[in-house]
Design a protein that fits this description.
Blueprint: H1 3-6, H2 24-29, E1 36-46, E2 62-75, E3 78-89, E4 98-110, E5 117-132, E6 151-168, E7 171-188, E8 191-192, E9 197-212, E10 217-232, E11 237-254, E12 257-278, E13 281-302, E14 305-316, H3 320-324, E15 327-329, E16 332-335, E17 343-358, E18 361-375, E19 378-389, E20 392-403, E21 407-423, E22 426-439
Parallel strand pairs: 16-20
Antiparallel strand pairs: 1-2, 2-3, 3-4, 4-5, 5-6, 6-7, 7-8, 7-9, 9-10, 10-11, 11-12, 12-13, 13-14, 14-17, 15-16, 17-18, 18-21, 19-20, 21-22
Amino acid sequence: ASSVLYGSSALNGVINVRTAFPSQKDIDKDKNKKGYLKVNMHSGVYDFPKRDVLNWNGENRRAYKGYEFLFANKYEQWDLSIGGNIFKDDGYRMGEITDRKRFNMNSTYKSKKIEGLSYSLNANYLNQSSGSTLIWNGLDEAYIPLDYAVSTSTGDTYNIDPSITYIKGNNRHSLRTRFLNVTNNNLTNGVDVGQSNSAKTYYSDYQWQKKLEKYNLTATLGTTNEIVYARSDLFNGNTSRKNNSLYTQLDKKHRRLNISLGARYEIFNLSSEDKYLIDGESINNITAGKPVFRTGLNYQLAEATYIRSSWGQGYRFPSMAELFIRTTQSGLEIYPNPNLKPESGWSSEIGIKQGLKLGNWMGYIDLAAFLMQYDDMMEFSFGRWAESRGDTNFYGLGFKSLNVGKTQISGIELSLNGQGKISKDFSVNFMGGYSYMHSI
């Protein structure tokens, strides 16, 4: 669990994606110091369905293709990385065509005057169009949408991320900020059916980290603040959501044992132009908050043997979509539920990791058991729902987000990873895994 440092969405961990920057070794290989350029291309086709009734496209094959590039270089104190992706997918279901173009820029400048001070400016831009269907046309026509209704979403997404980092001695200060803009224009068979939306997000995270080498202890303290302004045809107005958090974590190393303890307090506030009946009261503002805690242990039992355990809490406030969406899709209703309660829970794990070496082959095997429990878990559910219209209740089939109650997920996971040299210039990487989950 990483919910203390990264928020409740990280209840079951985080994946850290890092942009590639050129190392000095890469630059030294190029005497002209022009950096390096990397280009990937891929393409593929979808086979024809075995049953003719599914072959809505006749003799035309559906295909997909993509191009990616990365350019990176060092300019004295300045690191620069520019990348892009162009992807086109005809899809194998009628109307589900994807057309995506994305470009990114990452840059870091290290101050000459102040040692340890660096500035970064990162940005992403995405333009995409994608088709989607919700319901099949019938039992035998799984690749054809009901009534040939295809929803197409087109729009732009971009973010600008300025940040600053200052490292002096055993102290590290960092301030990361973001402005994110999302625009979606939704059409059904080329007609605007009132499902477009847009949102602006302002985000900041300040973190101070201090290493106490005498005690083999690292202390982290920080605050995260976010505000989202959203406008949607489906919300019947404008809404805003605020999230403010304070967090701290201690990481201690004692001989072969690593210990981690942390706490975070998150508070959410949601405001809407329209008023909703919640617990018998007509309101347009909801506020909720809760502390979460986590702990972790990692012990080196032998030279290549590690055992670990972790436990962490999470807390999730309902999204605007789960609370307020009201629309129709392929003849089915999507109902709002402003009475949703926040979801809370915890996850735990115990595992052992064993390093392996056999001649020119080396790797590791990992075995873990996990248990997760949630209260008031939220889930989009299909059913026949009542909706008040004046003094009358109307009933319709559709989806609605509900608190389904207590949920438990337990299981085991086995993974094996390794690498071996066949010859001086030829090596093989292998990986495999098995997961078993039991949900209640």
